[in-house]
Structures are given as C-alpha cells and as structure tokens.
Amino acid sequence: MEKRLLMAFLLSAVIFMVWSALFPPAAPPVKHQATEVPTAEPVPEVAPERTLPPAPEGEAESAAGVPGDAPPAVTDAIEAFSEEEIVLENGNLHVVLTNRGAAITSLILKGYEDDEGRPLDLIQTVDDPRRALPFQLVGSGKVDRRLYSAERQGNSVTFRWSDGTSEEVVTTITLEENSYFIDIKVVINGKPSMTEIAVGTGMRDIGETEKANRFATWGDVVVLEGGELEKYHRKKVKEITRIDGPTVAFAGFEDTYFLDVLRPSVPLAGVTIVPLELAAPAEAAEDGARKKEKEEDRRVLQVLLRPESPGFEGTLFAAPKEYDLLQQVDHGVEETLHFGIFHPISVIFLKVLRWIHGFVGNWGLAIILLTVLIRAVLFPLMHTSTVSMRKMQKLQPKVKAIQEKYRKHKGDPQMRAKMNQEMMELYKVEGVNPMGGCLPMLVQLPILWALYTLFAYAIELRHAPFVFWIHDLSARDPYYITPVLMTATMWLQQKLAPQAGDPQQQKMFRMMPLIFGIMFLGFPSGLVLYWLTNNVLTIIQQEITFHLIGERKKGGSSAGKGGKR
Hints:
Elements lengths: L1 H21 L62 E5 L3 E6 L4 E11 L5 E3 L15 E3 L2 E2 L5 E5 L2 E7 L4 E9 L5 E10 L5 E6 L6 H4 L8 E6 L2 E5 L8 E4 L3 E7 L3 E7 L3 E10 L21 E9 L4 E9 L2 H7 L13 H18 L2 H43 L7 H18 L8 H19 L23 H16 L6 H17 L5 H24 L17
Antiparallel strand pairs: 1-2, 2-3, 3-4, 5-6, 5-11, 7-8, 8-9, 9-10, 10-19, 11-18, 12-13, 12-15, 14-17, 15-16, 16-19, 17-18
C-alpha cells in the first residue's frame, strides 16, 4: 500500500513538473491602481513617489492640449534636414533616440549583457518596413517616419514637426534620474494623420543558448486591463488582436527575465496587438549557407496604444524582472514575475538564497548551501519517513502471507474487507503507520516545487557562473555532466533506500532515475545542481538514519534484498 502511494506521489510530481514546464501557470488577477512608481539598483531603493496627471473629463483640456472641438492653430512648417541621434543616460539606462519619428532606437539596461557578452538592448533588431519603434506614431497601417527638429535640455528632448497647414506634433521624451522610467508626452494640433503610439515591435534579440533553455520565453505581450493581467504568447497570436476599454493600466513586452511596458496617464480606447511574420534571413556572407530558422522564431508582436483623443502622455518602464524592484514598482507590474502555485514559498527561498550569496559570493555555492539548510530543517521528517519505510519492509513477508491467505477470495467484498481489517490489526500490533513513509514526502512537495520554479525563473541565476565548465546557471549544462551525476545519485539513493512492494512496482521505480535524467538534460544547470545536491544529502540522511536505528553493520549491505543491512 505504502509503495503504491509513494509511486503515485512520484509519478504525480513528474507529470506536474512536465506540465508546468510546458504550460507555465498564468498570473492571477491583480488590483488596478493608478499611482506611479519609484525605481532602484541593483537591490532598489524607493525613489520619491510622483503623481501622474489625472485623465481628462468632459470638456476639460485633452491630452493633446485641444480644448473642446476647436483645434489650436498650426505653426509654420517645421522639419529637420537630416536624421540624427540623441543619447540620454542615467545610472540604469542608456537610451538612444532618433528624430525620424521621434522614437527610441536603442534601450540598453546597464549591468546586463546578452549571450554574446554585448550590452543588453531591449529593442529587437527587426528588418521590416512595418516595424514601429517605441514612441513612434502609427495610423492606418503607416508608421511615422517624418524628420522632427530636436531640442535637448538636460535629460529631456523635445521633437517638433509641422506641415505648416493642418498638423503639428510636439513630442517630449524625458529620462528620469536613477530610475528605469522614461516619460513621454505627445501633443497633436490640427488634424492628426496618426494617433496610435507604439510600445515597440518585438523585444530584444535572443541568442541560441537562451532559446535552448526549456523555460525561456521572449517577446510575449502583457496587458493589465480591468485589474487582470493577461499574457499573449508570441507563438499563439495569429491575427490582429484588439483589447478595448479605458481601464488598461499598462501594455508591453516581457520575457523570462526582462520587462518593457508603457503605462498611460490618459484614457485609452484600447490596445492593438499586431503579429508580424518576418522574412527568412538572407544567405550568410561568411559561408554562403542559408540560415534556417523555425517559422515561429520569426514571429514578432507589435503593440500599439490607442488614446481616446489625439495625443498621449505616459511612462515607459524598462527593467529587469528582479523581485524587490518589481515589488517597489507595484501596481500590477510585480505580477509579471510569478513562481507558480507555491509563489510565497519561492519568495522566501529567494530571499534566503540572496542572503547566503551575500556571504559566499557564488550563486552555485549559495544553491548548495540553501539545499543543505533545507535538508537540515527537514531531517526529522525524512528520518521518520525512512524509519517507517524500513518497518514496512520488514513487515512485507507477513503482509504477503495475509494477501496470499485471501488470494482466492479477491472478488468477495466481505472477504476483502476482512483482509484489510487483518492487515490494519497487524500494523497496529507492530506499531507501524502505513502512511508514515508517504506523508512526510507529501509535506515536502510544496518545498520541492517552490525551489524548482525559483531556480527556473530567478534572474539572479542568469549568466551566473559556478565552477569550471558551468558559466551560466540559467542555461543547461553544455557537457551534461551534472544531469549524468544527478541520474547516478538518484539510482544510488534508490538502491540504498528500503525496498518494498511487488516486483512490478520495483521495476517501475528503477526506471525513475533514467526518466528524470533524460528530462533534466535541457533544464537550467542551477536547477540540476539543486536536484543533484538534494540526492546526495538524501543518501547521507538515509545512512545517518540507519546508524541511529542500529541497522548499519560492519560488512553489511544496504537495506535492499532480504531486508538485511
């Protein structure tokens, strides 16, 4: 009975693990709030809170600065002669603006690198005429490519364009000091030809190493609308999607580790998500071979905000998905980082992991020490479980004798009830709880799963080296050394553990190390390191338990065949 429960537990854990890896849980609904946010670096400190302007009502002045129905007069024609770039910079961001369309062409997060060791740019390289950069105006399928005149004052740039007759656009972009916020205000006078504002097209270039990570996502869209966080996966959006309603708190992009969302401070008519299928890459110049990419890898999403009236005002938040930072930002943004159904437990472990890292300075070593700490706390439970399983193993001959006694009466409910009653009496006389070996393991399930999701999604492990060949704990082991060691230790742990149950069940259990080993080949090495360490500590704990109960004898073998040790 106990072995069946244990087998059911392990199989359920495997199914649960694979299901969550393939279909991560959606973030739960969040409460809509309208206050603005501070920032920090690297463990952020809250900046002074600021209040966004209230949304216009009735006949009040619109976001475009147009009172009522009377459009302001358009000034003389204003246009630049050539394209130019302007760089804004603070302690967290390096922003490159262009006067062609008054947009952002580069948005670099300081302190982070891509897989090739270059500064991490949140603007994806997209060679497509339909591409809309952050803050570009869009209308009727056309992207604003007009040349604006630019005037800089400190970390603020004002772009102006006018045709001199019917339309004038003034865009002011400001990079806040020591933050991850970029403010934008667009004023449109006259008759606007473009009114939608782009959050961007795709999000950052992803290297092959990160694509190979089973947990990696990139370029997905997040929208907080009506107090609920909705996620639109890049691969699943096949046609133009419109989210209508004035309750959009923010919209933009996310991936496993970074976030890029635009927060309006004026009423919106809604959000438009446009899927774009990029052309296949041209032949590589170095070898003349055509680069092959999956069709889904060439799909990007374009996000546009639709203001209720011409003009726009809001704030772009571009930042790492670092837990403390997002918590300080709050207002729904923190929900973009979620560790699954055991999220609160994962957060506790994350804080402890960061505390340990503060002493040892190595994330791999911090994972090992955290696992040791958890196993030490759980030792009484594991000790009880092992002792109970050992007692159940010793009782197997008597249990089988009872089962054999009633074997000819399997179809008789009364005789079967009598057999179960006799077995329970045996457990009572021998002082054995048939659930004693499984219950402690079930108690551990939330802990194991919380650690599993933590190591898969925590940005702290991204590009974090451990030792020798492991240079990135968020990527898979390039030589598969840790998965092989994990499989071997899992097999040894199983061999040393008390064996019970029928031969078919034992055969099933002998397959588990191989199943886990194959499944973990593509998992992040930080996650595999945790599982490997946990296996080693389990083996040590089992040996300590057998010493304590006096079953370790000189020259003896593990508690396996024959029940001797």
